């Protein structure tokens, strides 16, 4: 009898506590690993999506003998579209513009619905343009539901990756600007988002700019017209993505892309006026420049690339006609806290010259054997960059 009772004895309190502690330890070890695996899968899926987009752009250019984009890059970077932090412009993004060309002819009508016998006016976004005061007969109308379907379609992403960003942060997004007339249910033009739900930026080269690059403004400027424009144009304009980079609640994760007072570790190095002197333009040149073609900035002095410091070197050409840019696992476009780990400073910018020079002083980067070398600036960040 005593042996039977002994064989049926339950766990003691100490044994139960040990089991619970072991389970808690295993959970603590497994959850971060699962999170990393999930993020790695999201990053891979985002890279694949961006590669498909780059391939679609290449196919479009082969067929049409021009890069995709219904409106010119010069128009996308115009004062009317970019506006200012206190007075946002029409707010059309470079990605929205590219998707108009890749998304199929059925989604676009001029001066009204593509087929006046199908649907209603309320199904369409009216006057989808970066330019103000377009005559009614020439206005571009877009049906967001038809993007990626119908004739002339080059790119049909999963529906979860097409998001209609709006001005209202209360519905999970906060695109600033949007001078475009939405359709009846509030939908505007779709942007492409990564697998974390954050907008993918498109940086498209202005092929109309023929000025040889001799200073930073020849390569990148805030906008193509008005204050901050470069006479003769620039290769790229920060303002083509102003409505996202000015957003205080961007994408599914409601990220504040602006210069956040008192919270510098979370700052995007592409935030507008992150420091006086448009430091965001230095950062933009650093990620869009071709590392194989450095030139001297004529406004910064320097007699040779060999002896120049990091601030005196700029890119002479771009890494691609269109560069697609997703913010990565931290949801921030080029987070300052990540850059500081590699460059050993808390500066609010990186420069193209840091590819070849130490960020402090200006000495040449060397390898372990003492030979001059270079580094990939993007290694400092978890951002995903795909060039076309």
Major sheet strand order: 5-10-11
Give me the oligomer status.
Answer: single chain
Question: How does the helix and strand content classify structurally?
Answer: alpha+beta
SS summary, helix count: 9
Question: In percent terms, what proportion of residues is strand?
Answer: 5-15%
Low-pLDDT runs of 5+ residues are: 169-173
Question: How many domain modules?
Answer: 1
- Specify Rg, calculated over alpha carbons: 25 Å
Overall pLDDT, averaged? 86
How would you explain this protein's 3D organization?
This protein is of the alpha+beta class and 388 residues long. It has one domain (73-387). The chain has helices at 2-7, 13-64, 73-76, 79-82, 94-102, 216-219, 242-245, 279-288, 336-343; strands at 108-110, 140-142, 162-163, 191-192, 201-204, 220-221, 236-237, 294-296, 313-315, 322-326, 384-387. Mean pLDDT is 86; it is low at 169-173.
Write a brief structural summary.
The protein has 388 residues and is α+β, with helices and mostly antiparallel strands. The chain has helices at residues 2-7, 13-64, 73-76, 79-82, 94-102, 216-219, 242-245, 279-288, 336-343; strands at residues 108-110, 140-142, 162-163, 191-192, 201-204, 220-221, 236-237, 294-296, 313-315, 322-326, 384-387.
